[in-house]
Amino acid sequence: MDAASFEALNAETLGPRLGGLEALRARLGDDPSAWRVREVGDGNLNLVFIVDGDKGSLIVKQALPYVRLVGESWPLPLKRSFFEYHTLTRQAARAPGQVPEIFHFDEQQALIVMEFLSPHVILRRALIDGRMLPRIADDLALFMARTLFRGSDLSMQTRERKADLALFADNVELCDITENLVFSDPYFDAEMNSHTSPQLDGLVAQLRADRDLKVAAQRMKHIFAARAETLVHGDLHTGSIMVTETDTRVIDPEFAFYGPMAFDVGMLFANFWMSYFSQSGHEQEGNRDAMRAYLLDVQERCWNGFLAEFSRLWRTERNGILYQKSLFEAQDDPLGAEQARGELLREMWVDLLGFAGIEIHRRILGLAHNADFETIEDPDMRAQCEAKALKFGRQIAVNRAHLNGMKEANALAALIETGAVA
Ligand code: SR1
Ligand code: MG
């Protein structure tokens, strides 16, 4: 990519610069001077524009050569847009209808033109507002099972699989962000860390002195860095999901790479649990007991739905390089295949708890915090919610091999939330 020719868009230049593209004219109208452009990006990394025309609307997303959250002092390659585009095309094939449609990609300008999802809202915002979306558990279970299974050696042929592994291996800088920001920075006094202080100072010192926790975090980092099992989304939190009552779409896979199957699932569940622990901070808008019950139910349904769809794919689409049917079903040994499936899913459960615990910690102690907690204005109340989440994160990361299923993990969350377990 020729970085020298890159030029960031703005609301004034977007029409003149992209007005010649048929992909845009067909959906917005032929007169770019009539397009209305709004910059709406509030994420950590990129520019996002909504473009409205007479015929319709669309989204233009452009990467910047630095981390928007921090500024130009932290350069970040434009090629993340390339990885986002290629991940979206694969996810569209593997989980049809669950990602936005892509209309145009410009590698030089690191921009993707895609479907404007409306009346969708960001899932995190909806959960903060106390909305109980009926479809998210089932839809996200399908998305994760399908993308993780179909992007792996369980499904892919060796040539295509290794070509993709090589392609995505170059998403180095984004992996490096996760390796540091998620797995290491929360556990020492890293420069860009912040937490609710002084309220959490004591607990933070305790966590940083917790040998078992640091060993667990580094074990999870080891698995993240070394276990290239499937094409993961890489940043699957509730801010990367757009929802209505009837539709769920996953966006923003710029952190995609070949990593462990449990990573996306653990990150998503961590964000549901953080939403759970943050609810009492939003209670001035009304009692949140039903919302808390809903969030635990989402976890259970989502994990059960994941197990069911993954198992279905295992039985019907296991045509890749691993656990060949020739060894099992074809030799009248379907039980062997079931045994292997059970082992793999049990290992995934243990790993996802590890990833979830660490993700919770980094969102409270690291650089990139969550609106779930950040929008709680009273720092004492915020710290109370965060402390419960931190303690839960510690328990599930360190004791991940001893929690037998989602009911037990949710029961632990409920005990910590009510104060029955300190
Ligand atoms: C510097 S980037 C910080 C965070 O924003 C992204 O959404 C990822 O979650 C990343 O860790
Ligand atoms: Mg993102």
Describe what this molecule looks like in 3D:
- The chain has 15 helices and 12 strands.
- The longest helix has 32 residues, at 334-365.
- It has 422 residues and is an alpha+beta fold.
- Strands 1-2-3-7-6 form a 5-stranded antiparallel sheet, with helices on both faces. Strands 8-10-11 form a 3-stranded antiparallel sheet.
- A hairpin with a 4-residue loop joins strand 6 and strand 7.
- The chain has helices spanning 14-18, 22-28, 80-94, 123-128, 136-150, 158-168, 172-181, 201-208, 211-226, 262-278, 289-316, 334-365, 371-374, 379-398, 406-418; strands spanning 36-39, 46-52, 57-63, 66-67, 71-75, 102-106, 111-115, 121-122, 230-232, 241-243, 248-250, 257-259.
- The structure holds 5-S-methyl-5-thio-alpha-D-ribofuranose and magnesium ion.
- Magnesium ion (MG) binds at residues 43, 235, 240, 252.
Give the key terms.
alpha+beta; 3-stranded antiparallel β-sheet; 15 helices; binds 5-S-methyl-5-thio-alpha-D-ribofuranose
- Helix amount: 40-55%
Radius of gyration: 22 Å
Strand content: 5-15%
Order of helical and strand elements: HHEEEEEHEEEHHHHHHEEEEHHHHHH
Question: Could you tell me which ligands this complex binds, including any ions or cofactors?
Answer: 5-S-methyl-5-thio-alpha-D-ribofuranose, magnesium ion
Structural class: alpha+beta
Strand order of the biggest β-sheet: 1-2-3-7-6
Mean pLDDT across every amino acid position = 97
Largest sheet: 5 strands, antiparallel
Quick summary:
With 422 residues, the chain is of the alpha+beta class. The protein has 15 helices and 12 strands. Strand 4 and strand 5 form a beta hairpin.
